[in-house]
Specification:
The complex is a heterotrimer of chains A (about 250), B (about 400) and C (about 375).
Chain A lengths: L3 E12 L2 E12 L3 E6 L5 H8 L7 E6 L2 E2 L4 H7 E4 L11 H11 L4 H14 L15 H12 L6 E5 L7 H16 L3 E6 L2 H4 L4 E6 L2 E6 L1 H7 L5 H9 L7
Parallel strand pairs in A: 3-8, 3-9, 6-7, 7-8
Antiparallel strand pairs in A: 1-2, 1-4, 4-5, 9-10
Helix pairs in contact in A: 3-4, 5-6
Chain B lengths: L1 H37 L1 H21 L7 E7 L4 H12 L3 E7 L3 H9 L4 E5 L3 H7 L2 E9 L3 H22 L8 E9 L7 H30 L2 H7 L4 H29 L9 H25 L3 H19 L11 H7 L3 H15 L3 H30 L1
Parallel strand pairs in B: 1-2, 1-3
Antiparallel strand pairs in B: 3-4
Helix pairs in contact in B: 1-9, 2-7, 2-9, 7-9, 7-10, 7-11, 7-13, 9-10, 10-13, 10-14, 13-14
Chain C lengths: L2 H15 L1 H21 L7 E7 L4 H12 L3 E7 L2 H9 L5 E5 L3 H8 L1 E9 L3 H26 L10 E9 L6 H23 L1 H8 L1 H6 L5 H31 L7 H25 L3 H17 L12 H7 L3 H15 L7 H21 L5
Parallel strand pairs in C: 1-2, 1-3
Antiparallel strand pairs in C: 3-4
The chains are: A alpha/beta (about 250), B alpha/beta (about 400), C alpha/beta (about 375).
Chain lengths: ~250, ~400, ~375
C-alpha cells in the first residue's frame, strides 16, 4: 500500500498562452494536514481542481487516493470531499435537506444518513436550526456545515479551498477544531488559505508563486530556512517575487 | 461682501459636485458596456434577433394559398369535368393530390392531414349543365384551421367561376355593377407592411424591458447591489447606468430593422425618419422604465424573467394589434389593450412609416406613451427608494 | 437506494419553494387559455367602412343597407366628402371607403354597367384582401337580386351556371376557439417546460453549487434525469390543467382519446426539456440562457403553424418546420382533438418525436461535462 494520499509529478495547466499551473510536483502523506499557500492568482485553485477531477490537466501526472487523475477521476470522487471557495450548499434547502441530499448521492444507506445526521447536528449544535433554510444561517455556521457535509461520506482526503474566507477569528478557531477532529479520524486534509496564522496549524505547507511551488516544508523549517520570525514574513519574502497580479 | 463671495463659492462647489457625479455616471455606463461586450453570445443574439425576425416574417409567414394539395372526387366521366380538373391542376394555387370516385377517401386524407381541401364532381354534373343549364359542385374543406378553410374555398370558387365564364365566352351579363378596388399604401398586399412595425415593438421591448430587468436583478442576486448602493454615487444613477447601453443597442436594432425592411422587403419609409427615430426613442424609454419597475419588484432573475414574459411579452403579442386584430376582441379586452404601450407604438409606426403622416395625426398616441414613460420611471424610482430607505 | 431518488427529492423541494415557478405553473395556463383565445380571433369582422354616396338614389340606398346588414361591416360615416373619408383612413377610424358615384343608378339602367369605387387601407394585407372580397360579394349578391327583379323572369337560365356548395368539416361553425385552444395548449407547455429547464443547470453554475455536484461521483445521466423528471411532471400537470380549462371554459372535449394526447405529450415534453437542458449546459449565465431560449422559442412558435399555415410557407421554411417540435404537436393536437385521429394515425409524428427525444437527450447528457 502506498503511504501517500496524493502524488503529483510535473503537473501543468495551460489556458491558451497562460500557464496557470507550471510544472508542480509534491506528495501529501496520509493523515497529513497539508497547507497549500499562495497569493491570489498564483494557481492554487486551478491545481486543486485538477486533483479533484474538476479540471483536466494539460500535462504531468497525478494520483489521488491511489487513482489516476486522467482516467480514474470518477473513482477519485468517491474517495474525496471538497469544499469550494464559493459557498456551495443549496440556500433554498434546509440544513437537514442539504445533508440528506449530498449523503444520498454518495450512496449512503438511508438509515445511516438519519443516524449520522442527528449526530452531526448535535456536534455542531445546530439541532434547533435543522429545519431552517440554509440562507437564514450566519456565514460562519454555513461554513462549518459545508465542511461537515464535505466529510459526511467519510472520504480519505478532503480538499478545502479557502474555507475560512470572511469569517471572524472565533469561528475560524472553531473551524480548525473541526479540521483537527477530521485529521484525527485519519482524513488527509488539503487546504488553501490566505491566513498565515492558519498556515502554522498545518503539518507541512507549500507556497505557490506564479504557478510554481517555491517552497515546501513544515512551518518551523520554513521559518528557519528563510530566517523569519513568522510565516507572514516567509510568505511576503516569496510572494514579492510574483509578477502576476490578479 | 463676504456673503456674496460665500454664495458664489457654494454655487461653484455645487457645480463641481454635479460635474463630478456626471463623471461617475459616465464611468458606470462604461462599466456596463464592458459587461455587455464581454458576453459575445448575448450580444450576438441581441443584434441578430431582429434580422432573423425580419427574415422569418418577411419570407416564411404568409397566408397566401400556393400549391395546396387537393383531392378531386370525380364521379363524372364527361369532357367538361375533365376540363375543370385540368383547369384546377394548372392553377398556381392547387396541386392535384389524387383523383378518385370514392368520397370516403376524403375523411382518411383529412385525418392524416395530407390534404385540406376536396372537390366533389357528381356523376350528373355534365348532363345537368346541358339539360338545365345548372351544374352542381361541392367543396369540402378541413376547417380545423378556419382561416385556411375560408381561403381555400374562396380560391377554388374563383377558379370555378372563371371556368364557368370559359364555358360561354360570348355571354354579356346585363345590369352589371362593377367594383373598382384600389389598395392604398400597400398595393401588392405585402405582409411586411404590417409586421415590420410589430417586429420593431417586439424587439425593443425584449431588449429594453427584459434585459434591463435581468441585469439589475442579477446584481441583487449576486449580492453586488449592496456594494454598489453603499458607494457615494446616487443609487438611482447606478440603476439608470445599467439601462443606457440597452438604449444604444436598441437604436442599432431599429436601424437594422429599417434597413432590412427598406432594402430587402421593399417596405417604403414614407414619413419623416427623424420623427420615426424620435418616437422609437420614446418607446425605448417606456420599455426601459418598465424593465426598471420589474427589477425593483423582484429578487431573482427567474421571477424577473417570468414577470417580463407575463406582463410584457404575451400582452404585446396579444394586444398590440400586430398579430391579432384588436377590433375583434370582446370589450373588456379592448379596454385592456389600451394600457399596452406596444399598441400605441404600433399605431404610430404604421402611421409615420407607411402612411407618411406627421406628428399632427399621432400626437395623441405620442402623449399617451409619454405619460406611460413618466409613470413607469416615477414608480420604479419610488420603489427603489423604499427599498433603500 | 439510487442516488437519483435524492436528486429528485431535492429538485422537487426547490421547485415548490420558488414562488416564481408556482406562479408559472398555475397562473400562466389560466391567463393564456382564457385570454388568448378571446384575443386570438382572426376572423375578420367589424370592418369599419366609410361610404361616400354621391348618388342618393334608391339603388345606392339599398346597397348601403345590404352592406350594413351584413355582420362584417360597421358604417362609420356616410356623406359626400372624400377628404373627410380619407382622413378617417389616415387616423385609423375607417378601414375602407366605398364611393358611389353620381348617376350610379341612371348609368346602371342606361348603360347596363355601372362602376363603384373602393379604396382599402392595405397595410394589413390579409385584412384588406378579405374586406374587399366580402364587399365585392355583397355587391354581387345585390347585383344578382337586382338583375332578377329587373329582368323578366325566365324558366331556365339562358346561360349555364355552376352552383357551388361548400361544407367545412370538423369545425362546421368555423369556431376559432376550437381551432386556437389546442394550439395554445401546446405553446403553453412548451413555454413552461423550456423556460424552466433552460435556466436550471445554468443557475447552479451561477450559484456555484454545480462544482460541489461535479466533485461527487454522481452519474451524468442521473444528474440530467434528475433535472428532467420534475419538469416533465410539471409539464404533465400543466397540460392537465389546460385540458380541464379547455373543457370547463370552452367545452372542448377531444374527439380522439386523452390517452393518445398524453402519450404524445409525454414524449414531446422530453424533447422540449432536452432542448432546454442543452441550452442550459451551453450557457454561461442565466441571462444568456433566457435569451437563447427566448430566441429559439420565438422561431419555433412563429413557424409552428399556429399563426400561419405551414402549407403556405416557402419550401426552405417547410423544411425547417420539420425540425420544429412545436409544429408536430400542434398538428397532432388538432388531429386528435378535432378530427378524432387515433394513435396509428399519428404514428409517423410520434416516431419522429421519439427519435428527436433520444437524440436531444443523449446530446444533453454528453454536453454536460463534469470536468473542464
Amino acid at each position: 500500500m502506498n503511504k501517500n494520499a496524493i502524488v503529483v509529478n510535473n503537473l501543468s495547466k495551460q489556458f491558451g498562452q497562460f500557464k496557470a499551473v507550471d510544472d508542480i510536483s509534491f506528495e501529501v502523506a496520509k493523515g497529513e494536514i497539508f497547507g497549500f499557500l499562495g497569493a491570489n492568482g498564483a494557481g492554487k485553485t486551478t491545481a486543486m481542481k485538477m486533483l479533484c477531477g474538476l479540471s483536466m490537466p494539460t500535462s504531468g501526472q497525478a494520483s489521488v487516493a491511489g487513482f489516476d487523475v486522467y482516467k480514474e477521476n470518477e473513482s477519485i470522487k468517491k474517495n474525496i470531499g471538497y469544499m469550494s471557495q464559493k459557498f456551495s450548499l443549496y440556500e433554498d434547502l434546509t440544513v437537514r435537506e442539504n445533508i440528506k441530499f449530498y449523503a444520498g448521492i454518495y450512496g449512503i444507506a438511508p438509515q445511516k444518513i438519519k443516524e449520522k445526521t442527528n449526530q452531526l447536528l448535535q456536534q455542531l449544535v445546530l439541532e434547533k436550526e435543522a429545519d431552517m433554510l440554509v440562507s437564514q444561517l450566519p456565514l460562519g455556521w454555513k461554513q462549518k456545515l459545508a465542511f461537515s457535509v464535505a466529510i459526511f461520506h467519510e472520504p480519505q482526503i478532503v480538499f478545502l479551498d479557502e474555507p475560512t474566507g470572511g469569517v471572524d477569528p472565533i469561528t475560524r478557531r472553531e473551524f480548525w477544531n473541526l479540521i483537527y477532529d477530521a485529521a484525527a479520524n485519519g482524513i488527509t486534509i488539503f487546504v488553501t488559505t490566505h491566513y498565515m496564522d492558519e498556515a502554522e496549524y498545518c503539518n507541512r505547507v507549500s507556497i505557490m508563486v506564479d504557478g510554481k511551488i517555491e517552497a515546501l516544508d513544515s512551518p518551523g523549517n520554513l521559518k528557519k530556512t528563510f530566517n523569519a520570525k513568522s510565516m507572514d514574513e516567509v510568505f511576503l519574502h516569496l510572494a514579492r517575487k510574483a509578477k502576476r497580479i490578479e | 461682501m463676504q456673503k456674496v463671495w460665500m454664495r458664489f463659492f457654494f454655487i461653484w462647489l455645487e457645480k463641481q459636485k454635479e460635474l463630478n457625479s456626471m463623471k461617475q455616471f459616465y464611468h458606470f455606463i462604461v462599466k456596463e458596456f464592458y459587461h455587455i461586450f464581454r458576453d459575445r453570445k448575448t450580444l450576438f443574439i441581441l443584434l441578430g434577433m431582429p434580422m432573423v425576425q425580419i427574415i422569418i416574417f418577411g419570407f416564411a409567414l404568409t397566408n397566401e394559398v400556393k400549391n395546396t394539395r387537393i383531392v378531386i372526387v370525380n364521379q363524372s366521366t364527361s369532357a367538361t369535368a375533365m376540363k375543370l380538373v385540368e383547369k384546377i391542376e394548372s392553377s398556381a394555387y392547387f396541386e392535384l393530390y389524387s383523383q378518385t370516385k370514392d368520397p370516403s377517401i376524403i375523411d382518411q386524407l383529412f385525418k392524416k392531414g395530407t390534404v385540406k381541401v376536396a372537390l366533389i364532381i357528381p356523376h350528373d354534373f355534365a348532363p345537368a349543365l346541358i339539360a338545365q343549364n345548372k351544374g352542381q359542385l361541392q367543396i369540402i374543406t378541413d376547417a380545423t384551421d378556419p382561416n385556411v378553410a375560408t381561403a381555400l374555398t374562396n380560391y377554388l370558387s374563383v377558379i370555378i367561376q372563371d371556368f364557368q365564364k370559359d364555358l360561354n365566352p360570348n355571354n354579356i351579363i346585363p345590369y352589371k355593377m362593377e367594383v373598382d378596388t384600389r389598395m392604398m399604401y400597400n398595393p401588392q398586399l405585402k405582409g411586411a407592411y404590417n409586421f415590420v412595425p410589430g417586429v420593431m415593438a417586439m424587439v425593443l421591448l425584449l431588449v429594453c424591458t427584459m434585459m434591463t430587468a435581468l441585469t439589475v436583478v442579477k446584481e441583487k442576486e449576486l449580492g453586488n447591489m449592496e456594494i454598489l448602493l453603499t458607494s457615494p454615487i446616487n443609487p438611482i444613477k447606478i440603476i439608470l447606468a445599467k439601462a443606457v447601453p440597452y438604449l444604444l443597442l436598441s437604436i442599432i436594432n431599429i436601424t437594422t430593422i429599417l434597413l432590412l425592411s427598406y432594402f430587402v422587403l421593399d417596405v417604403p419609409i414614407n414619413g419623416s425618419l427623424v420623427l420615426l427615430y424620435a418616437e422609437s426613442a420614446l418607446f425605448i424609454m417606456v420599455s426601459l422604465g418598465l424593465g426598471l419597475l420589474i427589477s425593483a419588484g423582484t429578487d431573482s432573475q427567474q421571477s424577473a424573467m417570468f414577470i417580463s414574459l407575463i406582463v410584457m411579452f404575451l400582452p404585446t403579442v396579444m394586444f398590440s394589434g400586430f398579430i391579432f386584430p384588436i377590433e375583434n376582441m370582446p370589450l373588456p379586452l379592448r379596454i385592456v389593450s389600451n394600457i399596452i404601450p406596444a399598441k400605441w407604438f404600433f399605431i404610430i409606426v404604421k402611421s409615420v412609416m407607411i402612411k407618411g403622416v406627421g406628428i399632427q395625426l399621432v400626437w395623441k398616441e405620442t402623449l399617451i406613451l409619454f405619460m406611460m414613460m413618466i409613470f413607469f420611471f416615477t414608480m420604479a424610482i419610488k420603489k427603489f427608494k423604499i427599498r433603500l430607505a | 437506494m439510487s442516488p437519483l431518488r435524492y436528486i429528485l427529492e431535492k429538485e422537487f423541494k426547490q421547485i415548490f419553494r420558488n414562488p416564481a415557478i408556482l406562479k408559472v405553473i398555475f397562473i400562466m395556463p389560466v391567463i393564456q387559455l382564457i385570454m388568448l383565445p378571446m384575443a386570438a380571433d382572426y376572423e375578420i369582422k367589424n370592418i369599419n367602412i366609410a361610404v361616400i354616396d354621391r348618388d342618393h338614389s334608391a339603388v345606392s340606398n339599398q346597397l348601403v343597407q345590404k352592406i350594413t346588414a351584413s355582420n362584417y361591416f360597421k358604417l362609420v360615416s356616410y356623406d359626400n366628402d372624400f377628404d373627410a373619408a380619407m382622413e378617417s383612413i389616415e387616423n385609423d377610424k375607417a378601414d375602407l371607403i366605398l364611393e358611389i358615384p353620381k348617376n350610379f343608378e341612371v348609368n346602371l339602367y342606361n348603360e347596363k354597367e355601372s362602376k363603384l369605387f373602393l379604396a382599402v387601407n392595405a397595410i394589413n394585407g390579409v385584412k384588406a384582401n378579405l374586406g374587399a372580397a366580402y364587399l365585392t360579394n355583397i355587391v354581387q349578391a345585390y347585383n344578382s337580386d337586382f338583375r332578377i327583379e329587373t329582368l323578366t323572369p325566365v324558366r331556365f337560365n339562358e346561360i349555364p351556371i355552376i352552383e357551388i356548395s361548400s361544407s367545412n368539416w370538423y369545425n362546421p361553425k368555423m369556431n376559432y376557439k376550437i381551432f386556437m385552444v389546442p394550439g395554445i395548449l401546446v405553446l403553453l407547455i412548451t413555454i413552461v417546460g423550456m423556460n424552466l429547464s433552460s435556466i436550471n443547470i445554468v443557475r447552479e453554475k451561477e450559484m456555484g453549487t454545480i462544482e460541489q455536484i461535479n466533485v461527487t461521483p454522481i452519474k451524468k445521466a442521473h444528474f440530467i434525469l434528475g433535472k428532467l423528471i420534475p419538469f416533465w411532471v410539471i409539464g404533465i400537470v400543466v397540460i392537465s390543467v389546460g385540458f380541464l380549462i379547455a373543457w370547463l371554459v370552452y367545452g372542448i372535449i377531444p374527439l380522439g382519446s386523452y390517452f393518445t394526447l398524453y402519450v404524445f405529450a409525454a414524449i414531446y415534453l422530453m424533447v422540449i426539456l432536452g432542448i432546454g437542458l442543452l441550452i442550459s449546459s451551453y450557457s454561461e449565465n442565466q441571462q444568456q440562457a433566457m435569451l437563447v431560449t427566448f430566441f429559439i422559442m420565438m422561431i419555433f412558435v412563429l413557424m409552428g403553424g399556429l399563426y400561419t399555415s405551414i402549407d403556405s410557407m416557402p419550401i426552405w421554411a417547410r423544411w425547417f418546420t420539420r425540425l420544429n417540435p412545436i409544429s408536430y404537436f400542434i398538428e397532432v393536437m388538432r388531429m386528435v382533438v378535432l378530427k378524432g385521429s387515433r394513435i396509428n394515425d399519428i404514428a409517423p409524428q410520434l416516431l419522429i418525436m421519439v427519435i428527436y427525444a433520444i437524440f436531444i437527450n443523449t446530446w444533453a447528457v454528453l454536453s454536460y461535462h463534469k470536468r473542464s
